[in-house]
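P.,

For your records, the input lines for the assembly:
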Amino acid sequence: AQSVTQPDIHITVSEGASLELRCNYSYGATPYLFWYVQSPGQGLQLLLKYFSGDTLVQGIKGFEAEFKRSQSSFNLRKPSVHWSDAAEYFCAVAQSGGSYIPTFGRGTSLIVHP
Amino acid sequence: DVKVTQSSRYLVKRTGEKVFLECVQDMDHENMFWYRQDPGLGLRLIYFSYDVKMKEKGDIPEGYSVSREKKERFSLILESASTNQTSMYLCASSVGQGRTGANVLTFGAGSRLTVL
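Structure tokens returned:
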């Protein structure tokens, strides 16, 4: 069965600083990987996804993520954080064959200090 | 530009009441999902549906049922609400299995249910 671990419950950064949110997955074959963002009081919005090909994926709002098979990781990065990036971030994994239903991590809450 | 609409953003119900949470999508998606979101637990799948009148249990179906009479509408039903069902409920949809993007979910804004 697939699973996702987001080891950081909360991350605090200063506005303008760089950001990396960690995500590790467990799945035997090549996974489909996702990052979603949830602003306060809202549903989840897709930031980016990895299906195959280039392991560095660009997303919306200036985010990128890198798939590292050797580390079973799909970390989310942003070079300079804006106050509006404060939100909950969820990593998700789905099977490349079989079930199409993604499994979500527990989320990382990003706090941005001015 | 709203694509997945959850009819109620906030509900307050009493223990034992029957609760209906409605979700409508306008993207002609085959798959629809109900998740429950609780702090520290992330999203947990309650039920999903891959076609009209078809449903499958997710990870935490106990205490819930669903109905999908039309392709665009997926309802979550709490037959007898309990306080431990106080939570945020998220509806989502995606294209059909085997089609590109089946794993990509579009979410509604959520329904926050409080059971007293």
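Two observations worth noting. The mean pLDDT of chain B is 93. The two ends of chain B are 34 Å apart (CA to CA).

Regards
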